[in-house]
Amino acid sequence: MDCQQTLTVAREIDDKQAKGIHAWNLGLTYDPKGDDARAAERMQILVGYERAIGHPDAEKHAQRLAQIHC
Fold it and tell me: Long-range contact list for 58-63, CB < 8 A, 24+ apart?
């Protein structure tokens, strides 16, 4: 399964953690291709999830996301 397929499955079963992780990974595939807006949109899903649950990596991921917006 590719990143898009696993993200689709995570959405279908409403697994928020898996949705965040797979959306982040999908975003990483867009970033090197220069599709910053699309990458940031996907990666924001994980940052939002991590912030909501107080995950210790939330701000690290938010900083990475901010680099894409630059």
Answer: 61/24
Alpha carbon distance 58, 28 (integer Å): 16
The CA angle 50-51-55, to the nearest 5 degrees, is 50
- Structural domains counted in the chain: 1
- pTM for the model: 0.85
Range of the domain at 20: 3-69
What is the mean pLDDT, run by run of 10 residues, along the chain of 70 residues? 88 94 91 84 95 96 86
